[in-house]
Structures are given as structure tokens and as C-alpha cells.
Here is the input.
Amino acid sequence: MRFSSFLATALPVLSTLATPPPIPSILATQSSHLGTSSEYYSLGCPNTTKPVASQQEQLQAITNFENLLVQKQFATAYNTYAAADIINHAARIPGNGTALAISYLVPTLATTNLTLLDVWVGLNAQNVTKSTAYLKGNSAVRGLGVIVDIRRMIGTCLVEAWEVGAPVTNSTNPIAYF
Here is the structure.
């Protein structure tokens, strides 16, 4: 094989190896379930949030949201930090949207004293931002309980929510629950 023939064959292959592929935007590569900027807008994220944020900004947003819930400012919390059509997975909330979440929380938690114990934000294995808040609740009706809020976030907007609550029961574990 002549050297010129070899070069004619090898150069096109070598040029593809020497050129790195473009680095796509994370927002452009995520599926709609994982959260895209179009989902941020289609779910109705409020203008008090932003579609791209640092982990610190997300932590501040979810901490502010949870503190507003502790202060019984349910409408302010949801209208400031949650998408109007937030996807609700909570068993007691009968559908999606902030209006249903607020209408459930107002009578349910109005007489419950809440204490925010911990909040964190991070990426899961699918590169989806999730936040978790751990709260202690105490009400005359339900007694002492534990609440865990899990939220999916796009930027500083809460777009999907799971809530789990359980009563504190007797346990042989001296550090159970809290």
C-alpha cells in the first residue's frame, strides 16, 4: 500500500478522533421526566423561581419553602416556590397543582406545630435534583408524628412532590424518629 493511499484512508478516521464531540447542555439532554426547561415553563413555575440554579440556591429555596410551611404560610410557600401544576404523589392530595396541595394543607396542618429538623438537596443516580425535608409534627388531633417531604426540582422551582407522614409510636430504639 502506498503511503498516499494510506493517508487518504486514515485521515478521515483520524480527524474524527482528534475532534472532541460538542458538550451538550444538560437541559437539552434530559428527558422530560428528568426535567427540562420546557417542563419548567409548562408546569407553570412562578417568576420568583429560576430554571437553572446552583445547589446552594436550591438548598436556600427548599429551606425557605419548608420554613414557610412551618410558619403556616402555605399559600405563600407554594405560590413562591412551586409550579402551579406541581405533580403531587402524596396519597391524601387528590391530584396535581398547588391549589389542591394548599386546600389539603390548610385544614390538616393548621393546628399542627411543625419543627424543621433537616433539609438537603442533591442529584440522584439519574442526575435529577431532589430535595428532602425532615420534620417533626405535633397536633392535639394526631399527636406526635414524623413527616418526610421529597421534592423534585428544576432550578429553584418545585415541580414534583412526595410526602410521607407517620405517627411516632413506642419503640425499643431509644433514638427512633428524632
Observations:
- Strands lie at 82-88, 112-123, 129-139, 143-154, 157-167.
- The chain has six helices and five strands.
